[in-house]
Every structure is written in structure tokens, then in C-alpha cells.
Amino acid sequence: MDASPVQPSRIxxxxxxxxxxxxxxxSARFLGLTSLQMLNVALGQYLYERTKNPLYLGxxxxxxxxxxxxxxxxxxxxxxxxxxxxxxxxCRIIQFFSVLALLFAMRMAxxxxxxxxxxxxxxxxxxxxxGPPSQSIVPELVDLKHLSNAxxxxxxxxxxxxxxxxxxxxxxxASSQGxxxxxxxxxxxxxxSPSWSISFGIGRRFWxxxxxLGTPWSRECAMSSRNVSS
Length: 230
Hints:
globular, 7 helices
């Protein structure tokens, strides 16, 4: 009798990409996060060159961080109570129009700084409400046996966007000697993010049933973390 232990079946490295919804989700997430990093770097450089004051550079990051810090708990409750597909899509459309408004503002000879920061805060609010549903939607896009692989790829894409975004923004800013080219690229990427979101139909599995409202955002995030560590 063979007493050798039973080896668990190996999950292919690209197993999560078998699911169409996940592929579109990850594409939209990469475009959104990368463009955000590009915008952060390019605006910081622009404001520093204009004001020669590092305080204004720091206020760019604060404009993004403060809404997320203040609204995370509220955004989590919204993600639990309402259709996450509609929340994500609405937030990404708002983000696109916020970046578009920033693009038109920057075409002015010398746009007022309060106008720039006002647009950034509005963009930060949309990003804050986009976060919880975007994090907790992953278990709904793949089979349970592929969940750990999907969460791993999701985390990898986030890290890749944090690295590639600043590099791309720095290269575009230096080569074009200004912020406008970066803003055109960011606007195009922000347009692509809601477009991909519409294409993949987030949460198609629970679209016909309200049962997803019974799984809190925090519980789904914890479940995803356990699947990664297991």
C-alpha cells in the first residue's frame, strides 16, 4: 500500500486569467492606478517648478490621501449596501471627468492653485469610494479554487502600477518639457478604465441576485487575505 502523501493539485500561474471578467477587471485596475501615479508625479513636478515651494508638492499627495483617510469607513458601508458594479463604474466615470476638468484647467496660462487642488480633492473623493468595492469584488470574478491566484495577480498589478506610473510620468514630462503630454496620456488612460469596466460587467454572477449585499466588505477582504496566505 502506497503511504506517500497526497499532493494537492497545482494551480497554473495564469489560472485566474481563464475568467473573462477578471481579465477586464485587472486591465481597468492597472490603467486606473498607473494613471493616478502618473498624475501625482507630474502635478508635483509642475507645482514645484511653478512655486519653488515643496509645500505645494506635498499638498498634491494630501489632496489624494485625506479623502481616502476620512471616507474609508463610509465607503465600506456604501460598498456593502449598494451594487458594487454601479459604485465602481460611477466612481471611474467621475474620475475621468475630474481629470478632463484638470486638463482644461491646465490649458490656462496660469491656472489658480485653489482650482487645481479643488479638482484633486474631488478626484480623491471618487477614488476613496472606488477602493472598497474594487478590493472586495475579486471573489465574485473567479472560481473559488482560483481565488488565491487572482488575489496574487491583483496585488502584483497594484505594485507594478506603483512602479511603472512614476517612471512613465517622469519620462513623458522630461521628453515633452511640460505637463500637458502627461495629462493627455492620463486622460486617455482614465477614459479606458471605465470603458473596460463596462466591458467586463463587474459582478455578473451576482447581478441577478441581491445576495452579494449580505457579504460585508471587510469580511470579503479578510477572506481574500486568508486565501493568499494559505
